[in-house]
Each structure stands twice: as C-alpha cells, then as structure tokens.
Design goal:
about 70 residues; 3 helices
Length: about 70
C-alpha cells in the first residue's frame, strides 16, 4: 500500500516508520516544516487504512497463502 503513496509522502513515511527518524530529523533533512512532516504521516496512514479496508480480502488471502505455503 505504501507504494501507492506519492513520492514525498512515501519518503517521509519510510523515514519515520522504517528508519525510526523523528519528525524534526525528517524536517531538517528534507528542508520542510515539522508540521508538513506530520501532514505527510497522517495522509500516509489514512491512505494505508483505506487501502487495507478496500483490499482487505486480498490482503488476508495473501497472508494466509504465505503462512500455509512457507
């Protein structure tokens, strides 16, 4: 789902959630405000929630297949 998020949002989300960087670190590195970082995180989380809600059956099928076939 994160691959469907626009590039800057994806970068901010990845830096925050996968790399563990703080909003302040991300803001400094990307030369954007801390509030802009927060907005990107909120939009990314909302997008992922919506994606999972609308594609939940496919996600459950993928997880089930992965668990039972590995």
């Amino acid at each position: 789902a994160i691959d469907k998020v626009p590039p800057t949002g994806k970068l901010v989300f990845t830096m925050s959630r996968l790399e563990g960087k703080t909003y302040e670190e991300i803001a400094q590195k990307l030369s954007i405000s801390r509030n802009t970082v927060k907005e990107h995180i909120v939009l990314g989380l909302n997008f992922i929630r919506t994606y999972i809600h609308t594609h939940g059956d496919l996600l459950r099928l993928f997880i089930s297949t992965y668990l039972f076939c590995s």
